[in-house]
Amino acid sequence: MRFNNTILISLVAGLGASSPIAKRVNTPVVNDGIILNYALTLEYLERTFYEQGIANYSQQMFRDAGFPDPFYQNLLTIRDDERTHVTFLSTALTAAGVTPVKQLTYRFPSTDVKSFVGLASVLEGVGVSAYIGAAASIANKNYLTAAGTILTVESRHSAYIRSSLGQSPFPTPFDTPLDFNEVYTMASSFIVAVPTDNPPLPFMPFPSLTLECSQYYYTAGSSPVTFTNAFADAQKFSNGTITTNTPIYAVFFSGLEKTFVQVRITRGNKDYKIDTIPAMDAGQVYVLLSKSATDASDENVIAGPMTLEVYQKGTEPSTPKQPACS
Fold first, then answer.
1. In this predicted model, what pLDDT tens digit does every residue of 304-317 receive, in sequence order?
2. Closest CA to 7 of 110, 98, 145, 107
């Protein structure tokens, strides 16, 4: 079966769109305790997501939505894996004399089985990217090995869910690393409240990025992309220093490659747009906006990242037209 990528983008982006515009975000200084608590925060999110979804949707509802057995049983296993990851990380932090963060309050936008499974695919992909991106900052080799054992399981979760959605389980030869603030930007879209006594983490979300709804699948080398209200938001983010003359670039992350495409302003000086997604590997791609044509480090990011599913030309689903945008 094929999942409606346009609906998922609107669901994920919609939550983040109401978050306040943050100012300049710098690369955080981290240690192993902070990194483990960062991982624990993400594992709490995944555990809660699966627990809520399994509570909301029955086995028969998954069957009726086109996910036959043993999908539901495997989903229970994925939930149990996330529970185990939470327990493992909490225990490791306590053993190291570091106070583990508590579970946050989350809100997820899935409204039915299909949107739940589609969002599961995105979350698993982001989880893989988070562990890869954090690996270089882990000092203790034992922690690095432990993180690697979680990473490979998350990658199998991602491949299985993608396959169940009719997408390639391994669309690229390399997975995509993301840094701490990039991951936290996407995770923050689902965070409703943080316990007041939680240990502080040095991460800040970038302003959210929203894609205009499209009735078609995104194809590398041909599809246009419009970033809704992104120029207006960039002016707020920069206190007016970003103007119509400021060059801004959409940066696409796919595997180990980052591709920069200059955007143009459209629709009454509100939106940014590119006319063609660059040629790149297909799959779950991340895109953000940067002030630099060559550097997408935190200091240059003005919005994003967010995810979009990209297909190679000729590999799109047989019925590429999606339901009309609302």
1. 999 999 999 888 88
2. 110
